Predict the structure.
Amino acid sequence: MPEARRVLRRWRRTRPFWGGLLLVLGGAELLLVPLSPLTVLVSLGLGGLAAIGIGLALIAAGIFLWLLPHAHHYVSVNALILSVLSFAATNLGGFLVGMALGIVGSAMGFGWTPVPEDPEDPENSVEDPGRPKVRDGQGTRTLGILLPVVIVGATLWGGTPAKAAPGDAIEAARTPPTVTTTLFSPQGFLLAGVREISTADGPLKVMVLRMKAASLTDYRLTTRDGSDELALGADTLDLSGSVTLYLTKFKGCLEGLLCLTFTPDKLPVPPVVPPFVFMTDVEAEQALVTSDSIVAGGLTLKASA
């Protein structure tokens, strides 16, 4: 069937077909492993739920690469992060097979560029208006190859310490207050690194988290910097505009599934977090927070000796 093959070939050349196929295969492998009859698998609880969720997400990412090739950068980055997380959240990433397929498929999807048209090819005699324009993709291919290495390296080695800017006179409390929230939803989240800020007792080593905005539900802050304990509560707390958090400890469950603890000495996260990420059951030691705007709903304040 030469005509059907020609149509399929033309369709395949206008999108990251092989990257999407590897993502679909990797997601299917992660999805099927906990459902298999083997008794050595973690098929129930967190491992099973995470495998099903990440597997379905990778399959959806592969289909998106086929249907929406212009969004291949965004889809590939999200699929890569999910593939790396599958190592800890599922059965070692489907015994490394599903994770490897997801990483390779994400890199191929990220580095994809349209195939240059051959003017002597009769298939290209009629211009396809829906076909993406040809561009020089050497730089994009290089980024596609290096992207898994960069994210995995950031996951293993954490952030790079950042020094305070000259003349920066930020001073925090002696004892960092404890903050808890049932849901933490950041926008434009960025792990800026580790630095030292000034306190009355000397310098304090903190993590620096920056974001465009953040929403917190059931916010509670308790502190005992003096003789009395103060408790601040809010049903909702919305931060917006150049939000910066200075934390000595950050603990929570990523997507409500994978529970992690971050400290200045151990930052097991990529430097950039995709916009759809949220965390539940968060507990943090907050040395300082800065924001252009802070809006609280249902604010309460209590003090006890």
Q: What stands out?
A: The chain is about 35% helix and 30% strand. Residues 45-67 form the longest helix (23 residues). The radius of gyration is 24 Å.
